[in-house]
Amino acid sequence: MPHLEMAIGPQSNIAELVRDLPIAAEVLGKFGLHCAGCGVNKYETIEQGAKAHGLRIEPIIAALVQARLSGFVPNISNEDRAPLRRAPGEFKRHGKIAHIVPIMSGKGGVGKSLVTALIALGLRRRNLRVGILDADITGPSIPKLFGLRTPLLLEVDPNAKPVPQGASAPPLMVPAQSRTAIEIVSSNLLTDQEDTAMIWRGPILSGVIRQFYEQVLWSDLDYLLIDLPPGTSDAPLTVLQSLAIDGVILVTMPQALATMIVRKAANLVHQLKKPILGVVENMSYFIAPDTGNKYEIFGPSYAERVSELAKAPLLARIPIDPQKARLADEGLVEEIDDPICDQLAGALLDAIEAHPKPKETISII
Q1: What is the value of pTM for the model shown?
Q2: Which domains does the chain have, with CATH numbers?
Q3: Please, which residues have CB within 8 angstroms of residue 356's CB and are 6 or more apart in sequence?
């Protein structure tokens, strides 16, 4: 039965609207505002969600009102569903991205990609515009976590400098957009075969990372998170030396070997005179669901020691959680609704405030 008396406006909370008017989920889904199970929508209004996805709010409100009155999902034009992207020629590189934060460890297998995703979710829950640059070119995980498979689109820059007759201006990549409007660029989105191996040497990897930063049609972002590969060689050096980063987040785990290698990464960051914003210990412990007992599966925590050596605050200790692992494996990481997302985002924002970014920017052209 149609809900005739329900008020629907720009400030209507998405989760509450879907709860009271279930057909709203289908209407919003037609616009790309996928709500069911999302760990972000319960914090957003229709206006905030539309803005994050680059959509005009008027057609969304009109379609919701029509569905409320009729009980059916109305026809929605392609024009109303299309994001309002800016022209490629408006890209201003550093001026359009407020903060750049690489996530690094030096060692593989500690969960950098998951930590990156959790931070991104926490920032989105604060209605900030977020992008993720997956700099782990040969072992990308970000698209899998977010359930993205469609290759990146290309757009020619209409404002590019003139080129010789017969030649064409190089196209720009359009970042993929996750269900919660997180923009993502990854080498796994350069092909429709997610198991294709990128057999590239160091200098090529560095060039690809530069392209992912410069030759992508990023929107105006509050935060660009960079998921770095393990190690302290070409890819991390390219990011740390070439981009105007705000600082680095180090990810570790409670294992002596991991701690030693993460300390190497911390030393690299210090040698390059970049700030370390904080330390995150992943897989820190496990809480048994039946007894509530706490078990240190990988041994005692080294988080405080790493934090002390890195001269940076401990942002969070993340427990082992099979539910998070399942959602990540199924490409549903955005369905994680956990306080750790807010803790990580809040700690990052505090660290950014404590380390004001230098006025100067660094050109990587």
Answers
A1: 0.85
A2: 14-81 (1.10.3910), 88-354 (3.40.50.300)
A3: none
